[in-house]
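= Paired protein data =
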Amino acid sequence: MFTTGVLGANAATHVSALESYIVESQISFAFGDLQCIQYNWARPTEDVWTSSTHFLHMSLGARPGVAQATYLDVDRPFCEKIGRVMFVPAERRVRSGSDSGRQRSLQCRFNPQFFEKILEGQPMWGDHTLAAALHLNSPEVEWFLWKLHEEMQHPVFAQQLMVQSLCDGMAVALVRALKLCQGEPSNRAG
């Protein structure tokens, strides 16, 4: 899924969080998959990556130190602090880095058609939307992520149906939170 590269002159000391992880649980659904992952890394990380899918990531605890990301495929690259929840659209080139530490996360990968089934056309990924997605502040999206995490940790009757239903609801929550509806006015300042 990821293409990882090394930045800077200190390639010999580079440690990637994407190179060292344990998948605790996983489940697939019609438009993607979910994984509960534990990352461990001894030194600060810095990676350049591109995901072929939409990538949604929620830290299940405190992030170790400061984590930042920069989109490299925009006219004027900008750096943002990564929040508890981070969303990166498919095919975007990103540089991300973090302090050393340990982190448990829920990671969701969604096929590019994930939003097309509810939108009439392609999502609008402006710079403001891309920046906001790196530190997505949406209680509704977090609610869906926690419910999905619960389904993965404690599978019960009709788990697959519940996961698909929750992911469909999360698609709507993400469209609302990121204001991806074409023709819907969005509040912009600056």
User: Anything to note?
Assistant: The beta strands are 21-29, 32-41, 45-50, 54-59, 67-71, 79-81, 85-88, 93-98, 101-110.
